[in-house]
Amino acid sequence: MTGSDGEDGVVVDRLSPEESFERLAHDIRLQTILTLDDDGPLSHAALRERVGVDDPGQFNYHLRKLDGRFVRDDGDGYDLTAAGRRVVGAVLSGGYTADLAGDTVPADADCLRCGGPLETHLAYGGVYVTCNECGQTFNDVEMPPSALEGSDPSEIYGLVDRWAKRRLTAAQYGFCHRCDGPIDQRVRRATEDVWEEGIPGWLADLPVEAVLEHRCTRCEEQRYSLVAAVAALEPAVASFHHEHGVDVRETPLTDLDWLEMGVTTVESTDPLVVTVPVTLDDETLVVSFDADFSLVDERRR
To answer: Is the full-model pTM beyond 0.90?
Structure first.
């Protein structure tokens, strides 16, 4: 099959970001989408009445901007398309309509680097966690306000941890958390030449031998994670925790005693293989990953 740009692949009719925003950039269009989310499908007349536009010509002009992309008449009346539902979801999440308060909340967790107390900061555009002693930043995530709505301050750190795990899990399934595009992952050795390629400076100061790079091939969003932190979510490691009475879904990563900055080691460089030992009680599971972060070995000792 041929893509819209002439290359081989699945056929995708893609709007540019500018055209997408232009189609939505009016109160009538946004109100049309929100109305259909509440009451759709609706006939043309009923939709215009609910949106509250007296001029049929004006309403038709704005409806045409949405028709086929964000709304569609499927014979039973106008209703939202999948793209339209995603727009509503973004609005309801608070991503475009609200902001997080500028508060700092104790995280009730210890720093993986120095053992000092962590703090959760609610800031413009997201949430981040820092160590009160060494200043290290963890879990700098673009978290929508809706994810924290109605939460007690004592619950915030746990919610941030779960949100970060959600993002990491999406990457493991090959999807970008930002645009749902395909993700390329690779393990990068913590060598000086690698840092010069654009890996953030804060990572260069960490006592780690390797990091995991996530790069979206569509929007070029680039993120980095501790190899051991992502390894904790691997099925083999999650199962090992379950055997020892630990649910990695509910337990914050910083509460895993084995998870430390320097726990990941480079076992070989050609090919690249990194190893993470996971010790629970008196048993250790050693998992090894290749450069693509595929599990290549697991053994107990």
So the answer is: no
